[in-house]
Amino acid sequence: RMPSSPKAVFSIFVNSFGRTLFSLGILAFLIGAFQVYSAKFRRKGVVTGILYRWIRHPQYLFLAIAGLGLLLFWPRFFILILYVSMLFVYYLLARYEEQRMLAKHGESYRAYMEHTAMFLPGEPGAKIFRSLFGWIRSKKLALGLAYVVSLVLFTAGAFGLHGYTISKTSIIYLPEKKLTAVSVIPQTDESMQSIIDIAFQDSAVSAAIENLQQQGHKGFMVHIMPRQYMMQALFAQPDMSGMRMRSRRSLGAVIGFIFPLLSRRG
């Protein structure tokens, strides 16, 4: 059983929250897409109900929410850069779509724009943009500068968080076993040592290590993670090691993966 320290619980919560956010974002996006395309099929004109009652571009908003969930679930620098870039691309696409809608529907859509927010009620993004870059006459230049500044700030913040995370990473070296162990959640050296000792009592583990030693391997890197950790494939290839991961294909397991915060075991 993995330790339940506050840091460990928080780490698991962020992972589960990211998956839930991603799933909810995709689900809401599909609802918005159904609303738009069903209206087109029935030739109902401008969609202004349900999701579109409060914001003009709910589909882009929910894709952004799903992207944030993916970033929390699978935090990588390239995903962060893609995410920030994606937000600006969504803004440009939304503006392009609005020009098309104005050309097609005229004043009815203009009236809709005047009393409906673009992405979030209250337009917080527009207010921040105007306060920081409103002094620039060229809107294209202002938008380009905002993109560069956003990339720099988010990347710098990510590097800072990365460095802090590494400094707090639980890692031990066991020279007698020629093994370095890293835990994906914070825990004490004693707890990690105990987990490794228990693992070495398993005949399958001992046989696998002995086999690797006979092949000439001089040392080993071991990752310690919760049993239900959903990204185990990033650390190991069970089919090559001769060991199999437990497969759960029940409806409850699927729901638990998509919406982990709704699952007891998350």
TrEMBL record:
Its main location: membrane. It is found in: Endomembrane system. Keywords: Membrane, Transmembrane, Transmembrane helix. InterPro entries: Phopholipid_MeTrfase. Pfam families: PEMT. The keyword Acetylation does not apply. GO terms for cellular component: endomembrane system. It is a multi-pass membrane protein. The keyword Secreted does not apply. The chain crosses the membrane at residues 20-39, 60-93, 141-161. This is NnrU domain-containing protein. It comes from marine sediment metagenome.
